Amino acid sequence: MDEFLLSQNLRRVCNGEGDSTTSSSRSRQIILVEKPQTPYIVLPSESRFHHLIQRPHFAVDIGGTLCKLVYTTVCHEEGSDRPEVLLNFKKFLNIEMCLQFLKEEWVQRTEEDSLQCTGGGAYKYAETLRSELGVRIARTDEMQSLIQGCDFLLNNNEDESFTYHHEAEGIEKYQYKPIASDLVFPFLLVNIGTGISILKVNSQSSFERIGGSSMGGGTFIGLGHMLTKSNDFDELLFMAEKGDHRKVDTLVADIYGGDYEALNLSSEVIAGSFGKCNKFSSNQELTARPEDFAKSLLLMISNNIGQMAMLYGNRYNVKRIYFGGFFIRKHSITMRTLSYAIKFWSKGECEALFMKHEGYLGAVGAFMANLS
Ligand code: ADP
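That is the input. Now the predicted structure with adenosine-5'-diphosphate docked in place:
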């Protein structure tokens, strides 16, 4: 715990066990005097959050690849008249690392406390979490949590959703799109995790899963590893940035020698992803590097998701399409490809909307579940 606080350059000013009257209402919070260097948002000053000043609240979304944790801390900065409750965000590559962190951070937990849990791991690891942490497990439905988290963030974090404009410079690339809560519905939420879920959200309490695909983030890390030997998502993205997919993909130009004018397809359009890897039909030696495979793979998956999202949007007549899930990682190639696909398939009518806390929607929803 101390190591954590020190590593975040935070100062501990008191252990919070002072002036409360009963043991159950006694403060079990450490009060910070500076905002952390790690990601957080300030929770609104609503009655449902007031008790979080006294005791922390933790929620975890355990998916097919990553564990996402959100948890509260309290910060009382000098000069401010009252403490604020912060919601902190942290992800882990596996359940063991997540458990270790929970044990260190949630020091004063008791068997009366509950860990909010969602995702497949809320079932798979329920017993491990219960016995290792000695707290209750409060499970919430994964899709319901996604929607609740998305709804909370859109309504309470002004700069949560944004569009991406690749051609712009620097900060101009990101245009924040706050939306009034009465205008947000209906919308599509395309959650790109290990796999993909497409949800049509009609209101806070009404949604349906209208589609999905197995070709998502898991495909990128899985096939990416087989093609490049890299085991690391960030390294794969880095390679994709350096890659040239034209060494791997068959373009319209490779077939037509230029544009396919009758269909308005430019020479640069990908006609066949990985088409050049077929040694049997090509008399040219393949000169592709791992970086080129990574780029081709990222484009193939992102293009496909963008097109699928827009086709579902058209089919259900929904113009507002949000993308969530940790596959995106605010990466320029991914956001550019998704944005392009949405614009292209909607004939310029729609824009792809991204979320700042893309991978944490489920965890935030689970966090909110028993607070209202
Ligand atoms: P899930 O709940 O299924 O684990 P997530 O929304 O957490 O889904 O997204 C998982 C996907 O995020 C992975 O399949 C991978 O494509 C991508 N990803 C982003 N960052 C990482 C990382 N550091 N390690 C592994 N995968 C990552």
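The two ends are 30 Å apart (CA to CA).
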